[in-house]
Specification:
With 121 residues, the protein is mainly beta. Helices cover 0% and strands 58% of the residues.
């Protein structure tokens, strides 16, 4: 199986920055897309940013120009650099890895436990 662990959340003032990290470990044959989602209280989980194996990226309109997703293939790690944070960015941020644990395994979505990001006004 594949384990996914996020880190880097915390409390920051509006206008500040945070960098989230997400490391996948365990039985990994290949990782395809990796992505960050977030869920605010009372709202549905939404896609924040994604990155393919070929480094193509996609962002939610609400974070374009402020957030940057990147990955280190050798470390099975994805990052989310968040700048110019706003109170509406407050949420639990989840990492997702689209991976196979063996050559015969199906592609599966693996989720982390989430990391809290709180932006004060």
């Amino acid at each position: 199986q594949v384990q996914v662990v996020e880190s880097g959340g915390g409390l920051v003032q509006a206008g500040g920055s945070l960098r989230l990290s997400c490391a996948a470990s365990g039985n990994i044959f290949t990782i395809n897309n990796m992505a960050w989602y977030r869920q605010a209280p009372g709202k549905q989980r939404e896609l924040v940013a994604s990155i393919t194996n070929g480094e193509a990226t996609d962002y939610a309109d609400s974070v374009k120009g402020r957030f940057t997703i990147s990955r280190e293939h050798a470390k099975n790690t994805v990052y989310l650099q968040m700048n110019s944070l706003k109170p509406e960015d407050t949420a639990v941020y989840y990492c997702n890895a689209d991976a196979k644990s063996s050559i015969t395994d199906w592609r599966r979505n693996y989720w982390g436990q989430g990391t809290q990001v709180t932006v004060s006004s």
